[in-house]
Amino acid sequence: DPLSPDLARFPRFADAAHSRLSTTMRPGDALFIPGLWFHHVSAESFSVAVNVFWKALPHNLYHPKDHYGNKDLPAGDAAVSAAVRGVTNALSDIP
To answer: I need a labelling partner for 73 at 20 to 30 A (CA). Which of 17, 63, 67, 79 fits?
Structure first.
């Protein structure tokens, strides 16, 4: 819950909260949030939200079952997995 974060479980949330962006929108305003950006929205009164997803990169970069372009790219997933394997292997060599 971004309004009441569990700082014991997510201690770095406090650091991230200092760099957050905040705005108050008025009737007729529109807000663009780039794909894969974490965000939280609250309404002070009745509002309507519309999400539109599109793929902006070449289609071969996306997972074949990602119809909207809102999942992590396979190349990014592979890089994270490789980094985790490398760190795990390096740590396993420590006596």
So the answer is: 17
Buried b (16+ CB within 10 A) or exposed e, 69-78: beeeeeeeee
Reduced to 3 states (helix: H, G, I; strand: E, B; else coil), residue 39 is coil
User: How far apart are alpha carbons 3 and 13 in whole angstroms?
Assistant: 11
| Global pTM value | 0.46
Contact indicator for 66, 80 with CB cutoff of 8 Å: no
Q: What is the distance, to the nearest Å, from the Cα of residue 94 to the centroid of all Cα atoms in its chain?
A: 34
Per DSSP, 71 falls in state: S
End-to-end CA distance of the chain: 40
Band of the pLDDT at 9, cuts 50, 70, 90?
A: very high
